[in-house]
């Protein structure tokens, strides 16, 4: 089935993705991984997100995460797997997600019919995702679907998020943008992670950030004030359009009615999560 609204999948993903990504900004991820022996927040993030691929090395993590500095990853991986095995990391991840969603949505919320329905729709959409050239998606796709509906929903949102993300990285590479280039142009759009958050979490120095901005300005993608030029705006729009094309299959499989309903349900759940403090107020912006 072809969706008549070409951006329907993107809109759906925009409210599905936060259900997955909320864990990375939570106290639960740090608490549960610290209890498992991983006290460094970045190491906890790396363990949670890379574990589906197994005990991979720093190069693989840098390649698949794309917008993180290799230096800070290599300081932690593969030594990380001596502290926590990938299987332990996956078990810890699910425990943290369970605690987080219960805090954000409440006991009645996680047991609601809406969460069960959203899980069914998201899982159905994920049936059309493909493993080829999508390592983060493929790793997660090999994991069992949790029985509890709220965890099944999180798992399905993870599949959809990583499927789109893997395709997005291919588009970024094709556009000639390094990980830091991509992060900087997204920040300049006002829709990406703020500069402060990039520097605190992605392992780049202020000097590296400024050098990237200078390089993007020389390429004609940013103005002297680090705003997107017309060329830069056009490139970002084309990147999103190409990403939509590569991520079309799950939403066409779900169909227009299913996509609309999943967007509605996931939108309500994401709003509830945001209202419960799931995301830092200064996360998005310049």
What's this model, at a glance?
By secondary structure, this protein is mainly alpha-helical. It contains 15 helices and no strands.
What's the number of extended β-strand segments? 0
Q: Whole-number average pLDDT? A: 96
User: How is the main sheet built?
Assistant: none
Name the structural class.
mainly alpha
Distance between the termini: 39 Å
Broad shape? globular
Helical percentage? 55-70%
What features would you describe in this structure?
- This is SalK.
- The mean pLDDT is 96.
- This protein has helices spanning 8-21, 27-35, 41-50, 58-65, 70-74, 80-83, 86-110, 113-126, 135-141, 149-174, 179-188, 195-201, 206-218, 230-246, 248-275.
- It contains 15 helices and no strands.
- The protein has one domain (8-275).
- It is globular, with a radius of gyration of 19 Å.
- With 286 residues, it is mainly α.
């Amino acid at each position: 089935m072809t969706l008549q609204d070409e951006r329907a999948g993107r809109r759906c993903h925009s409210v599905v993705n936060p259900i997955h990504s909320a864990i990375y900004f939570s106290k639960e991820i740090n608490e549960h991984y610290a209890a498992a022996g991983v006290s460094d927040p970045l190491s906890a993030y790396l363990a949670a997100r890379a574990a589906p691929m197994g005990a991979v090395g720093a190069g693989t993590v840098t390649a698949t995460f794309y917008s993180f500095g290799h230096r800070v990853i290599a300081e932690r991986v593969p030594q990380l797997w001596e502290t926590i095995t990938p299987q332990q990391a996956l078990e810890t991840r699910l425990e943290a997600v369970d605690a987080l969603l219960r805090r954000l949505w409440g006991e009645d919320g996680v047991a609601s019919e809406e969460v069960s329905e959203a899980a069914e729709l998201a899982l159905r959409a994920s049936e059309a995702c493909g493993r080829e050239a999508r390592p983060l998606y493929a790793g997660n796709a090999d994991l069992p679907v949790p029985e509890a509906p709220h965890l099944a929903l999180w798992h399905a949102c993870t599949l959809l998020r990583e499927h789109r993300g893997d395709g997005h990285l291919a588009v970024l590479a094709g556009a000639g943008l390094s990980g830091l280039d991509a992060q900087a142009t997204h920040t300049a759009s006002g829709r990406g992670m703020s500069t402060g958050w990039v520097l605190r979490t992605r392992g780049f120095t202020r000097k590296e950030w400024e050098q990237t901005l200078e390089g993007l300005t020389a390429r004609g993608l940013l103005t002297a004030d680090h705003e997107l030029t017309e060329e830069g705006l056009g490139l970002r729009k084309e990147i999103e359009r190409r990403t939509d094309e590569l991520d079309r299959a799950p939403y066409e499989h779900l169909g227009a009615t299913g996509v609309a309903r999943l967007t509605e349900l996931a939108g309500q759940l994401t709003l509830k999560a945001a209202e419960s403090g799931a995301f830092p107020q200064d996360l998005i912006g310049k």
